[in-house]
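Obj.: predict assembly geometry.
Materials: sequence records (below).
Method: joint structure prediction, all chains together.
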Amino acid sequence: MPAAGAKVLIRDKILLEATRHFAARGFEGTTVQDIADAVGIRKPSLLYHFPSKEELRQAVLEGMLEHWNRALPGLLAAASSGEGQFEAVVGELLGFFTADPDRARLVVREILDRPTEVKRLLATAIRPWIDVVADHIRRGQSQGRIRPDVDPEAYVVHIINLVLSGVATHHSLGVVSDERQQRELIRLAKSGLFLHESSEPTRGAET
Amino acid sequence: MPAAGAKVLIRDKILLEATRHFAARGFEGTTVQDIADAVGIRKPSLLYHFPSKEELRQAVLEGMLEHWNRALPGLLAAASSGEGQFEAVVGELLGFFTADPDRARLVVREILDRPTEVKRLLATAIRPWIDVVADHIRRGQSQGRIRPDVDPEAYVVHIINLVLSGVATHHSLGVVSDERQQRELIRLAKSGLFLHESSEPTRGAET
DNA sequence: CCTACCGATCGGTAGG
DNA sequence: CCTACCGATCGGTAGG
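Observations (raw structure tokens):
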């Protein structure tokens, strides 16, 4: 095997183990030694690939941000239809984080550990997408498909929170099965958004 | 300053500052020195009151658990009526954590940092209360007041999650105001639970 | 509640 | 990618 490609592999292995450890024990609760041990190299060798613990954190987070910068535009632009799009976006969100719950735990930890940095990142990189979804909701409201009492921005934040924190804490709680929890999440999100409902025609709910 | 009552006061001040720091930076991210500095004493003096950092963590958590062991029985037993009780329990939950968001952040961190311990605690101390609420929901379902498709246990877990994580992360996100976020949370929780819809006037109508 | 101090471990560097 | 090693800081103790 050519030695040229090996460097990339070890870098990825470091990122993988760093994600695992940061997610499970937090950035402060993880030592560079822990990660080096998990990778199977010495501490100074790890610090050759990532010159500081802080830069390792950044690299781990950038990997996740990259995913969403790629996935979100397509998801939100393509569909454009109400309920189908809703399923697609929430499904993608749930799928991404349940595929590796460490991602959700990492994001929740980052929100708690570095509020100011997250706030800045959110304002520039995530807020625009929240607004796009909120506008979709407002359009649905004027068309009578979506409950008029929904607060679009607040609703979107709650759903993201529900998915993120739900996945992050699920295994620590173990009250109900993954499947029941996810099914109920989608039911809750839908019943709080759409007006029509399968068996309940809402007539004269409001004056 | 009277010396007699001072010992109790300093203990409480240590607990207060420990809560603040553990909530903001995590247990591993906080040093005993940090807390001692905030209190205004030396590190060994703090360690006289709480013989180890670990015992300080336990004391902080016990204070919170005590509150709920006192409050929950009354809340759940007294009311017994559907929607009124729902408002009371969710209101108490929201009120307790919004009164001091550090509490919410502390609990979320504990769930992430110590999954096994939390699981044990949940099974013995919290699970019974979830079951009580779930049974209330099932009774409401058989009476036709509550949506038949609600998964009681999963629903309760989601609502707790929504309150806890919502409060814990709110100031780090700053997307919408506290008030809008809380109002939408209650709307979302209600619309996902009850069949009839609004028996009370919706104040502050927009449009 | 303090000063003085401990061994262990932290993130990181030198130098090959 | 390694061995050897650094100053700083960690939680905690001794002893008053």
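Conclusions so far: Residues 10, 41-42, 44-45, 48 of chain B lie near DNA strand C (CB under 10 Å from a C1').
To do: check interface contacts against the pulldown list.
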